[in-house]
Specification:
Radius of gyration: 33 Å
Structural class: alpha/beta
Helix content: 40-55%
Shape: elongated
Number of helices: 22
Distance between the termini: 112 Å
């Protein structure tokens, strides 16, 4: 058997009952983007060194097992043919692309490969790397070559697309042949780096748990039951209704549209929908539709093929694919250009996308939550937003009220922000004086919750003691106009309007023309209102 005679049909067995077998061994079909997301999570948990150690050792075990399967499954003409088959296996499994004549990493010039899935996924999820990052590939080749050669072989990468190089390049040598060049890489094969990383992670987790307990105690003392699901503060009736509706919507797969002024917490509501849904184990991917040009937004959402435009040196999945099994949060959806709106609508309806530069479609599995501070109904009427997309997005519509309409939440929110700000600077949370609390409730909060958070962070930074004083607040909050006090019984707006109009009319000596001018209404409107008042008066007399 020669390596060049290997065919995927001879290696891959598919049975409706038994599943997939590759080279005689049970195999799994895994999505490249899912593996990329795993890489990102490993980096976030263990750091770059720890993630490299895990993936290198995993790759080594994979390569060793594959070499065993290839040895027992085929009768090779020579050891060199068995060794050459390792590079071809990479290509057949979709890990990278390598030519058979250049597939031996032990050759003096090494191996140059194209389309490494690992480099692609590192760029997608972690951005450009500072060092070669095809760690699993190095481990796989090392494990495969070590079994074939009967002694330890270490394959290293010195050029990588993830680092910005034109292609990935690997070379394999023994410990003696590498010499001092191997010293910094050897710990990743032997587990030393992983053990150290796990120790650091364990210590970090303990510190984090201690901080979380301290924060929980502080919040319990200061806020009580202020924070609700998803960290949202909802004491007022309107906000409680929003939270309840969001939690009910989360149980379905319906698209959700969150509407509210800037700074009201629309992203928090979107996060609540994700966390309460069956997709909570998947990713929550967010993008601002106002931050990118139309062409860049299309590439971000739908992905692109290699060579689709200048600078597209590798193919890249879009966020609609990257959020597979999770939720895509489209912030500022009202800013999306009309051309993109049509493409997004098609993707949502057909549940598939076509990357820029490709001519075939790919299925997607994602739930979309969109948000805007624009009145989309008015945008539709003005022709600036597609009506069909509007109705497709607002299957469930959540209206987040501005802070001025949920004054019951102002002080609980302020207390939560005080605790958070104080914890970050390592000091006890200060309290709010009565005059400060009163002033916070007087302010109109045009910036909503975001403005309140910033005000509390400033107050913590400037306060001299354990109490927030008026001088610690921003100037526009200190000069807030007083909220009118309610005296006596509640009267209807209609009754108040009637009394005010009649009072102005009396002050003008019954001059209806001057009264209409003072009130800023038309004379016809004034005559109609006065006539209705006369009818009500006559009915009461009867």
């Amino acid at each position: 058997m020669r390596a060049r005679d290997l065919r995927i049909e001879a290696l891959l067995e598919v049975d409706a009952r038994q599943g997939v077998r590759f080279a005689g061994e049970r195999a799994l079909i895994l999505d490249a983007v899912a593996l990329g997301m795993l890489r990102k999570q490993l980096v976030e948990m263990l750091g770059l060194a720890g993630a490299r150690a895990v993936l290198t050792r995993f790759g080594f075990a994979h390569g060793w097992r594959m070499a065993e399967a290839m040895r027992t499954g085929f009768d090779w003409e020579s050891e060199s043919e068995w060794r050459a088959a390792g590079g071809l296996i990479h290509t057949l499994q979709g890990l990278l692309r390598v030519r058979l004549e250049d597939s031996d990493p032990l050759a003096p010039r090494g191996v140059t490969v194209e389309d490494s899935y690992e480099a692609e996924q590192h760029l997608l999820h972690l951005g450009r790397a500072e060092a070669p990052s095809c760690w699993t590939q190095c481990g796989f080749a090392s494990g495969y070559m070590s079994l074939v050669a009967g002694r330890p072989i270490y394959v290293l990468e010195d050029r990588c697309v993830a680092r910005g190089d034109a292609a990935c390049h690997f070379a394999g040598r023994t410990l003696e042949e590498w010499g001092s060049q191997l010293e910094e890489h050897l710990p990743y094969f032997q587990g030393e780096v992983l053990d150290a990383s796990l120790h650091q992670v364990a210590s970090a987790l303990k510190r984090t748990e201690r901080k979380l307990r301290e924060r929980a105690r502080a919040l319990e003392q200061v806020v009580g039951e202020a924070e609700g699901p998803g960290g949202l503060v909802a004491r007022g009736v309107e906000m409680r209704r929003v939270v309840d509706l969001a939690r009910r919507a989360a149980r379905s797969e319906a698209t959700v549209l969150v509407i509210g002024e800037s700074g009201t917490g629309k992203e928090r509501v979107a996060r609540l929908v994700h966390e309460e849904s069956a997709r909570s184990a998947g990713p929550l991917v967010a993008i601002s539709c106002a931050a990118l040009t139309e062409s860049l937004l299309e590439a971000e959402l739908f992905g692109h093929a290699r060579g689709a435009f200048t600078g597209a040196t590798h193919e890249r999945p879009g966020l609609l694919e990257a959020a597979a099994g999770g939720t895509l949060f489209l912030d500022e959806i009202g800013e999306m250009p009309l051309g993109m709106q049509a493409k997004l609508l098609r993707a949502l309806q057909e549940r598939e996308v076509r990357r820029v530069g490709e001519n075939h479609h790919r299925p997607i599995d994602v739930r979309v939550v969109a948000a805007t501070n624009r009145p989309l109904a008015e945008e539709v009427a003005a022709g600036r937003f597609r009506k069909d997309l509007y109705y497709r997005l607002r299957v469930v519509e959540l209206m987040v009220p501005p802070l001025r309409e949920r004054r019951e939440d102002i002080l609980p929110l302020a207390q939560v922000f005080l605790v958070d700000a104080a914890r970050r600077v390592g000091r006890p949370a200060p309290s709010l004086g009565t005059d400060v609390a009163d002033q916070l409730q007087r302010h109109d909060w045009p910036g909503n919750v975001r403005e309140l958070r910033n005000a509390m962070e400033r107050a913590v930074a400037l306060s001299r003691g354990t109490r927030i004083e008026l001088e610690d607040l921003p100037e526009d909050v200190r000069v807030a106009l007083p909220v009118p006090a309610l005296v006596g019984e509640v009267r209807t707006l209609e009754a108040l309007e009637r009394e005010y109009i009649l009072a102005v009319l009396a002050r003008n000596g019954g001059n209806r023309t001057r009264t209409a001018q003072d009130l800023g209404i038309g004379a016809t409107t004034l005559y109609r209102k006065l006539k209705s008042y006369d009818r009500v008066t006559r009915r009461r007399k009867r």
